[in-house]
Specification:
Blueprint (H helix, E strand, L loop, with lengths): L3 E5 L6 H9 L3 E5 L10 E4 L22 H17 L3 E4 L1 H9 L4 E2 L4 H4 L9 E7 L4 H6 L3 E6 L4 E2 L6 E6 L5 E6 L4 E4 L19 H12 L10
Parallel strand pairs: 1-2, 1-3, 3-4, 4-11
Antiparallel strand pairs: 5-8, 6-7, 6-9, 9-10, 10-11
Helix pairs in contact: 2-3
Length: 228
Amino acid sequence: MKPRILVSVGENSRFNYERAVEAAGGEPISRYCPTLDAGYDGLLLCGGGDIDPSFFGQENLGSNAIDRKRDLAELALVEAFCGGGRPVLGICRGHQVMNVALGGTLIQALNSTVVSFHQQEHGDILHILRCEPGSLLHQLYDLPLFPVNSNHHQALDLLGGGLYPIQWSESGIVEAIVHSSLPLLGVQWHPERMTGDLQRTDTVEGGRIFDWFIKLCRGEVSYGRQLA
């Protein structure tokens, strides 16, 4: 039986996430601002606009495209899934939502030198990331360094409770996180745009993230800080 994955999306972006979940063997159910429901095996938090900085105790210092309704829904979802010990995968904005939900903060606007390596006006930027030896991403790709896509102007700052970094950009930006005991993975990049028909020859294959996540939702892989 396919695991049912709640895909929390913005109002206009879902297709690539759904396709990646389906290709990995899951059943995606996409919702904008979904309400709490125990009938899902995993949660996928997708990309989108910035989180209202009031949720991490700051004034607006560069955040934009804020959707407080979505913020409230997704912060509540993270709390509920963590409380139930159910898997959560966060991508880009979702990676940041996970951090804020667990008490972390964000860099609201990367400085002009750093942001040029992470975001451009049209399309993705490619750059090289470094993995923690032995971590999930190191194991999935069997590489200490590998190229990914990138399109973000914010980043994690103070990490939330129980979260650990497992991947960094050239400038030291945290690009992936895991939890010490809860089945959580967040990545700042976009694996859904690096798989299937969108697979690129200049990055790693993003489908490995979704394959692992669906196996986790099925109980076919175990979880630990190193995610061995």
